[in-house]
Amino acid sequence: MYRFRDFPLTRLSAGLLMASALLLTGCSSDSSSPASPDTGAAPQSGTTTHTAPRAVPDGMGSGAKDGQFPRTVAHFEGRTAIGTAPEKVVVISTGQADALLTLGVVPAGSTRGEDAGLIPPYLSAAFPQKSAALADVADVGSRVDPSLEAIANIKPDLILMNIAGKDADGLYKALSELAPTVATQGTGVYWKQDFLLVADSIGKAEQAQKLLDAFHRDAEELDKAVEKPVSVSFLRLNGDRLRVFGVPSFTGSIAEDAGLGRPESQRFDETSEDISNEQLDRADADWLFYAVQGDDAEATALTRAPLWPTLTAVASKRAVPVDDDAFYLNTGPTAARGVLAELDKRLRP
Questions:
Q1: CATH code (residue 155)
Q2: How many other C-beta atoms are found inside a 10 Å radius of the C-beta of residue 24?
Q3: Nearest residue to 44 (alpha-carbon basis) of 259, 221, 257
């Protein structure tokens, strides 16, 4: 059996990410879409149901206007009073770092993911004017088990965590003893509501809503521009773990916003499903967007696997290596803009 290893990725360009952080700009493609392999029907334009929630859950948030403090924010672990606009914010998720930076705030401290840096390269590229401040962001340990001592040393006036994949109650209690703490839900499909909740915590919910509204308008424009039917597939390799991503995922929700079809093999109700190299055909579609985490030594087995050249997307030169950080590791609005920009670049006629 072949053992999948890594593949050297082509990063989303800094210019593309910087531009897409404010407004998606269409890029031309001189190719037309081939016949879909097992293409699922794309969501209809103008649909009113969305897999990714577009608002905070009922009863959450503060209801306060932008810049108004004090405020009390209801969230996934309770209610938190925030007396003044936070100036030192610690995040326990790089998705929250993405949200803060999108709103013009540099976190004072951040955790790092497994085999990942403190500030993902796509964020450094998107906010070059913040490079000096980003270099000073303090490392507070892992997302699952952050260092309380390191956080305390920062003396934050706000801590942002999420409840996914950890002892959320215990962590919230410990963090709340250090500073006012707000808990979002976490996981990719909830990136929009979490962005709004983070924004509310720093007094910028209205600003965040405007950014989301612009994102949705640009996704709808792509929906109208793409020649249908067309299907897209999302594939990630991390060590020996190979996964395809469903609709209720970060990238899946963005594809849904843009009205893009998904292959039947990826229309399941989970974030992702593990596959073996013998099941690589489950990654097939008109377009395949794939990423590999790791160094160049882990590179070539995926594209040398026996089934790889048999995929429609590969044969038609529509298998696209993408930035693992933006597509699969982080779930914030700037990452979402990068994903949407890449989809637009490849799919717009």
A1: 3.40.50.1980
A2: 22
A3: 259
* Chain centroid, CA 76 distance in Å: 20
Same domain, 191 and 240: no
Which uninterrupted H or E stretch holds 217?
A: helix 205-225
State the pTM of this model: 0.86
Please name the residue that has the structure tokens 């950080």: 325
SS3 129: helix
Residue pointed to by tokens 């097939």? 284
At 77-124, the pLDDT tens digits run: 999 999 999 999 999 988 999 999 999 999 999 998 766 778 999 999
Backbone angles phi, psi at 89, to 5 degrees: -110, 130
HSE at residue 322, side-chain half, CA atoms within 13 A, is 30
- β-bridge partners, 92: none
CA atoms within a 13 Å half-sphere pointing along the CA-CB vector of 338:
33
CA distance 18 to 146: 30
Amino acid found at 275: I
Say whether both 311 and 242 belong to one domain. Answer: yes
Length of the chain as a residue count: 349
Range of the domain at 190: 71-203
How crowded is residue 5: how many other Cβ atoms within 10 Å of its Cβ?
A: 19
Among 35, 116, 166, which Cα is nearest to 335's?
A: 116
In the chain, how many H helices and how many E strands? 13, 12
